[in-house]
Specification:
about 70 residues; 3-stranded antiparallel beta sheet; disordered N terminus
């Protein structure tokens, strides 16, 4: 698991800046389960986009939610 994390960090440094996160990305950043993130999205606390069957969380929406929930 740690090895995979290092690889993804490495890959991200070579890719353009991300504008959206997956539910899994946000769960990892917050150290919570994916279910918790899905609940935050379902409750409308974090604004998200549905693209087909996937949910993507715009970076700006996540950062806004994070700044308001930590104040």
């Amino acid at each position: 698991e740690v090895h995979m994390l290092q690889e993804s960090t490495c890959m991200q440094s070579h890719s353009p800046q991300r504008v959206v996160y997956s539910v899994e990305d946000v769960a990892e950043m917050l150290s919570v389960s994916k279910g918790t993130v899905y609940n935050l999205v379902r409750q409308g606390k974090i604004k998200a986009l549905r693209i087909g069957n996937t949910i993507r969380i715009p970076k700006q929406s996540f950062e806004e939610w994070l700044s308001t929930s930590t104040n």
